[in-house]
Amino acid sequence: AGFGAVRAAAQTPAVSISGVGYMQYGYQLKDTANHANAFDVTRAYLNVIGKFSDGISTRITGDVYRATDNSLLYRLKYAYVTYKPTTGALSYRFGLTQTPLLDWEEGLWDYRMQGTMPLERAGYITSSDFGFAVDGSWGKDGAVNMQTGIFNGEGYHGSTGDQRKDVEARVSVRLMDTDQGGIRGGLRLTGFVVYGTPTGGGQRQRFLGMASYSAKQYLIAAEYASTTDSSTTGPTPSVKGSVLSAYGFVKVPNTKFGVIGRVDLVDPNTSTTTGAGAQQTRIIVGGSYQVSPNLRVMLDLDNNSWSGGYNQTQDLTRSTVYFHTQMTF
């Protein structure tokens, strides 16, 4: 009985609970007839993290999101176990877990409250999927760090798919130090690749290169990605696209204010400039204020346009002023 009690006590995890919520108010500038506007909760996450002995940790994250029918629904975003040996540079994750790029890039950008990152916003990748992943970090403050894994490929919001899988990998190398440490700090070159097959067959490829300079008071980053998609279950031929994005921020010294800017150029079909292949240009500018460590607010303008006059029916909603709020606990 005594041995069992000691063993049970040794395996008791340290459990932490945290949450993140994104609230917003949007006002459409182009809708001169009605000036449509709305309050919304775009996302809310609840995290339960357990840390055990012997390098084992677990995470479960629930996600409340706005569905296409405008209802708020609940789903699972993360449910995985991590094993980090006491020696060595690698750790291992299994379950519904982060994919290699987005969690890293969202931490670099630091303004997820405004919206998703370029490749995710364009619908090319997802932040979480079912699979097995390996993380590695070498050198001081992760001078070289990588994430790689094999995944179902349909995302945490999709089905488990069939026998076909996606392989994804990201590698980031620091070329110069700044006052910002960690796996995102400094002058860095980063590469990311997805090579897989969608359910039913075909191609799903993404190749991305990024340069970033991250310091405590400012960030500047630029990335370019090429994409290839095809399907053997329908008439869709191989379609090549591209995403070019540049973004950054400046935090005003000795204040709680910050300024952000971002430009996304999304070309869903590089072989045509008309119809569904028209290029979309998104420009975002805004300012933020850190009310407290757990509350940040931001006012920004989000403006979209399409080449060749495509999507004129959406002209009323293409230019919107947002008031965003991010709360954490």
Short description:
The chain is mostly beta strands and 329 residues long. 6% of the residues lie in helices and 57% in strands.
Question: Could you explain the architecture of this structure?
Answer:
This protein starts with a helix and ends with a strand. The chain has helices at residues 2-10, 102-109, 118-121; strands at 14-28, 37-51, 56-66, 72-83, 90-98, 128-138, 144-151, 166-176, 186-196, 202-214, 218-231, 239-251, 257-267, 280-292, 295-306, 319-328. A 16-stranded antiparallel β-barrel has the order 1-2-3-4-5-6-7-8-9-10-11-12-13-14-15-16. It contains three helices and 16 strands. The model is unreliable at 1-9 (pLDDT under 50). The longest helix has 9 residues, at 2-10. By secondary structure, the chain is mainly β. A hairpin with a 4-residue loop joins strand 2 (37-51) and strand 3.
Fraction in helix: under 10%
Structural class given helices, strands, pairing? mainly beta
* H/E element sequence: HEEEEEHHEEEEEEEEEEE
Unreliable runs: 1-9
Helix run count:
3
Strand order of the largest sheet: 1-2-3-4-5-6-7-8-9-10-11-12-13-14-15-16
Describe the sheet with the most strands: 16 strands, antiparallel, barrel
Shape: globular
End-to-end C-alpha gap: 39 Å
Percentage of residues in strands: over 45%
- Average pLDDT, rounded to a whole number, is 91
Number of strands: 16
Rg result: 21 Å
